[in-house]
Amino acid sequence: MSKAGTDDNGAAQEPAVLIKVHKNDDGAGWGELILNRPARKNAITGPLGVGLAEGLRTLDADRGVQAILFRGAGGAFCSGLDLGAFNANPEPDWLGDFQTIWRSAHRALFECRTPIIGAMQRYAINGGAALALACDYLLVGERAFLQVGEVQIGMAAPYNLAWLNLRHNEAVISELTLIGDRIPGQELVRMGLANRCVDDDDVLDEASALCARMAGFPAGTAALIKSGIRSRLPETADQWFDRYVAAAAGNRVKPRAVQAKS
Question: Residue 193 and residue 133: Cα distance in Å, rounded?
């Protein structure tokens, strides 16, 4: 988890990422990984990236955790890069290290042995879409949408493309990325990008119930099956992501994500 800091007035701030662990009497259970910047629609910053990597590795190291629920605080998943933070003057101290920080976060997602159950409420946009696509099983709300909109603003989308190529065919990837429009919940299921679409008010309850059910499976079974699913990939996380980052190396557009207005 990222450590709590202070704002410009010296007031304490909560960590950008929270983790929770729910255990049964027998020690088996499930964890929650929560993007915790609700006032900014859980927009991505350096501290959020650090907290994401640390929190995920903490939960994955707990052998009593059989599933990880990945969600955003405040009823939304993730609105993409925090434009205000990236364009602040003076620059935040993490800005120069952001690419390394963000790679570490995606490396942790790639290497996680524990199944990750995504609960996508309202939206997952650009960099936030990559986090949703990284989930092993994704539940979405009926009025929620996912958008890989970088093409509309002249930016590359290396991590979205990396996760999409890991799991989906060229036709699906093209439909999602070449136009960059919003894809609503039911359509995400039709395209195979999400597993289930439920009423918006039920997303967290359904995802939590699934994680609780998985906590009752024989210890380590789901992680073992996930390992078997991923065994077809010879590359390490860095080898896999380097393919897509290298292809985007010529892109020099200053980050400005498509942001949700509500």
Answer: 7
Whether the ω angle into residue 90 lies within 30 degrees of 0, i.e. cis, is yes
How does pLDDT run across 20-52, given as a tens digit for each residue?
A: 999 988 888 999 999 999 999 999 999 999 999
Contact (CB, 8 A) for 18 and 200: no
Q: Is residue 7 scored above 50 in pLDDT? A: no
Which residues, at least 6 apart from 99, have a Cβ–Cβ distance to it below 8 Å? Answer: none
3 is written with which tokens? 């450590």
The token pair at 79 is: 């609105």
Q: Which domains does the chain have, with CATH numbers?
A: 17-247 (3.90.226.10)
DSSP secondary structure code for residue 21 in this structure? E
CA 171, 176, 179 angle in degrees (round to 5)? 105
Mean pLDDT, residues 201-212 taken together = 98
Question: What is the rounded distance in angstroms from the CA atom of residue 2 to the CA atom of residue 243?
Answer: 28
Question: Are residues 163 and 116 in contact, defined by beta-carbon separation less than 8 angstroms?
Answer: no
Rounded to an integer, what distance in angstroms lies between the CA atom of residue 225 and that of residue 202? 27
Q: What is the pTM of this model?
A: 0.91
Hey, what are 201's tokens? 């008010």
48: number of Cβ within 10 Å: 27
Asked if 35 and 16 count as a contact pair (C-beta separation under 8 A), the reply is: yes
* pLDDT confidence tier of residue 191, bands split at 50, 70 and 90: very high
Give the residue among 161, 159, 137 at the shortest CA–CA distance from 225: 137
The tokens describing 153, both together, are 């603003």
Instruction: Name residue 140's beta-bridge partners.
Output: 120, 197
More confident residue, 26 or 150: 150
